[in-house]
Amino acid sequence: MRNDAYEALLAHVRETAALESVAGRLGWDQETVMPRGSALQRAEEMAAMEGVLHARRTDERIAEWLDAVEPEGAVAKAQVARVARAHSRATRVPADLAQEIARVTSVSQGIWAEARAADDVAAFLPTLTEVIRLKREEGAALAQGGDPYDALVDDYEPGMTGADIAAMFGALRPRLVALRERVLGAAKQPAPLEGNFGSEAQLRLARDVAAAFGYDFSRGRIDIAVHPFSSGSGNDVRITTRVSESDPFNCLYSTIHEVGHAAYEQNVDPDYLLTPIGQGVSMGVHESQSRIFENQLGRSEAFTGWLYGEMRDRFGDFGIGSARGFFGAVNRVRPGYIRTEADEVHYNLHVMLRFDLERALMRGQLDVTDLETAWNDRFKADFGVAVDRPSHGVLQDVHWSVGLFGYFPTYTLGNVYAGCLHRALRADLPDLDARMAAGDPSPATEWLREKVQRHGALMAPREVIAQACGFEPSPEPLLDYLEAKFGGIYEV
Amino acid sequence: MRNDAYEALLAHVRETAALESVAGRLGWDQETVMPRGSALQRAEEMAAMEGVLHARRTDERIAEWLDAVEPEGAVAKAQVARVARAHSRATRVPADLAQEIARVTSVSQGIWAEARAADDVAAFLPTLTEVIRLKREEGAALAQGGDPYDALVDDYEPGMTGADIAAMFGALRPRLVALRERVLGAAKQPAPLEGNFGSEAQLRLARDVAAAFGYDFSRGRIDIAVHPFSSGSGNDVRITTRVSESDPFNCLYSTIHEVGHAAYEQNVDPDYLLTPIGQGVSMGVHESQSRIFENQLGRSEAFTGWLYGEMRDRFGDFGIGSARGFFGAVNRVRPGYIRTEADEVHYNLHVMLRFDLERALMRGQLDVTDLETAWNDRFKADFGVAVDRPSHGVLQDVHWSVGLFGYFPTYTLGNVYAGCLHRALRADLPDLDARMAAGDPSPATEWLREKVQRHGALMAPREVIAQACGFEPSPEPLLDYLEAKFGGIYEV
């Protein structure tokens, strides 16, 4: 009888997962191939899907099934726990609010994209105001008297609160700021990569590197989009990238980053396909996979050594005379405007800025009309340069336009987890550098698949990192790694 | 109170239409961009969508709303009539049968594509057997004691039966066969187009011609697929085409054909968007739009005169020395194997073959193991040549693999309707040839938009043709047109 309840519950959530996968594909379509004139119709379609999903997630039978099940074994227990968590959250958000968020955020993304292209903050503010109002309403409904922002963070990183994040950022910030100052003040600065690099050749290289990092093209594809992203789970995990002819590292490292996300989804145990644990467990753990692919592996001296030769073969001489100089160019530290193009030293400062602003917005401590000024003031203070236009400042990220408040801090949490995983896998794989120097990061990507990715959401976020590493996660491994790497490059 | 029921009914079916649009986009995705390894997961997703749609279409409140409404005006009456018809059909098909058909036909298309590529009928037969079993079951559930095939035909062409079609085909066949014999026996035969025509240039030409025929790229896009098709409604209507470097007419006329379908969907009154009447009324009327675009307009002497100059500009000299010779090459009559490449004289003979075979399959008068032999025997009798391989015969069309039984006859019905519409629009537009000779078919496409397309499904299929033409539809205008055109080209 209780087993029947488990089977019924799993069948229900499996069908829900299939419908979520459909909705996800619709999102991919919207950002890659959708005709421009379809936006309003698409908003209706997304709202209808959201209505269906909300009805399924709040189905009254779920509570009955949850009451009746007595799951046995780790897998069944994890499945039930994920359902219970999702059901509890879904029932707290009214259906009409969920549908309104879906409808508004479907249109708002297009408005953001146009405002960004025109550097016109005013054109985006009415929409952003509406998104913030709806997300605060959602956060309040979820928090039931608690902090609305905490409730939104918990959506992306189960178990984390704004206070946890603030504490972690507090531990990171002093050593990061000190490292930044030492590096920017160093006498010897690496030369940047300059020149023109053809789009087609860049995309071919990105595809080859994606394959080297384990991306399975038979279960995915790479397209061009404004903002690189990974989308889907299991056997249909698609990524996007972008190309700048003057900056091939943009395309290349965006791709490696998204391949990290995609590998996590593609490598989950196939037995979990379209079930609650059949996907990455949290945004923080997800980001740990993308960041370790991109930075600790992709920007390592060993891998960039191979990449240097490969790029010279493909693009000819581009004015950098040694692998060591190329390693410096890849890891050049500059206070740039754009988070997704930021070096590893500055990246977390970008995230801290967004965290403080969005937390204040959600708590009603910052008005949206003051947001641009607050952004620009904080940027000047943290980065030492003034924002020159909104597309380099408050309009640069897609996240807020689609209601992703509470998401940004998971980027830095991902870096912290990546630091931990990197320390652990280096201890297990003493010959990794020799393989990466031959363009083969597979010992590391296989280690991550085995230790982290295949488990999907079987364990809690912090738990999967702790068991993979053999120690409790903390910011120190990341800080030690950054100080050693950039201290070496900048000889400080 | 009764008005409330109408509003509630419309809100329900509008959301259903939005979800149908999502499912349609998923079908587009599957045939254009989906990674190969995603097929099984996609089948789960399609089945889940079908489950949702079936539940919505059979919602018990629909019967209550239908009982309560008293629609006023032609639009409201048409909306209610379409809902009543769809609801009646949906409630007759059990949910598990509908889901099983969705699941099987999602996978079966891939199996068909592989079997066609390998010319391996045996690899496809088990799947086809299963599809036929399910569609016979569906037909029987729909027909409730009547002819299962009639019930399936009625899905695509409301009001038509197998007997109606057999009678129409009986009226067409003698004059078609006689015309075919005269043409193939003519002393003077036009020379074919030969040479190699670059894919990129072909696609550019196809896009330009699509725009000339009124395709709105801001609400659509063109991609490559195995089988050309049009998909979607309202503001997101996508078409596909295919390219053969030795036969540019394949890409060009497939594109014009699909633009005819797409124009019908794009040009429906925007007030009807995502409502029951917000799409083409039947497959026969749909096909009348694609066929009149492709043949009566696109293959006319006036338009091919413009096309001749355009192709010489774009591809250089290709060995045809006059516009008149080019017109002959475009309209060359040959007993080819492939329906979608057939000339206007043979096309309807292809359809008649499929109609007789699929009707026999559905009525249990032909076993699937005898299908290939039956196809080959009939083809030899009708076309005078033996099928040389299955991909040129029984495996050539996608339709049966996805369960589209009862669909083929609507192709010829579309030709009959196109013949009627062409007679009527020529009478209204005496200067059309002068405009088409300048590459501009817009007087005709605007006439069709005004007289047919904007109405969507406001009127019954035969009614929309009759009011557009000002006379009752019959096969004679098509036969008169074919005899005049091909009698002229072949001087018979």
What's the structural blueprint in terms of helices and strands?
The structure is a homodimer of 492-residue chains.
Chain A: H1 2-32, H2 39-57, H3 60-68, H4 73-92, H5 95-118, H6 121-143, H7 148-156, H8 162-184, H9 199-212, E1 222-224, E2 230-231, E3 238-241, H10 248-266, H11 283-297, H12 301-315, H13 323-330, H14 344-362, H15 371-383, H16 409-428, H17 432-436, H18 442-451, H19 461-469, H20 476-490
Parallel strand pairs in A: 1-3
Antiparallel strand pairs in A: 2-3
Helix pairs in contact in A: 1-2, 1-3, 2-5, 5-6, 6-7, 8-14, 8-20, 9-10, 10-11, 11-16, 12-13, 14-15, 14-16, 16-20
Labels describing this entry:
homodimer, 492 residues, mainly alpha, three-stranded mixed β-sheet, 3 strands
3D structure, described in words:
The structure is a homodimer of 492-residue chains. With 492 residues, chain A is mostly helical. The first copy, chain A, is built from 20 helices and three strands. Chain A has helices at 2-32, 39-57, 60-68, 73-92, 95-118, 121-143, 148-156, 162-184, 199-212, 248-266, 283-297, 301-315, 323-330, 344-362, 371-383, 409-428, 432-436, 442-451, 461-469, 476-490; strands spanning 222-224, 230-231, 238-241. The first copy, chain A, has a three-stranded mixed β-sheet with strand order 1-3-2. In chain A, α2 (39-57) packs antiparallel against α5 (95-118). The longest helix of chain A is centred in the N-terminal third of the chain and has 31 residues, at 2-32. Chain A binds chain B through residues 14-15, 18-19, 21-22, 25-26, 29, 33-38, 40-42, 44-45, 47-49, 51-52, 216-221, 234-236, 238, 273-274, and chain B through 14-15, 18-19, 21-22, 25-26, 29, 33-38, 40-42, 44-45, 47-49, 51-52, 216-221, 234-236, 238, 273-274. Chains A, B: It holds the Pfam family Peptidase_M32. Chains A, B: The active site is at 258 (proton donor/acceptor). Chains A, B: Its EC number is 3.4.17.19. Chains A, B: This is Metal-dependent carboxypeptidase.
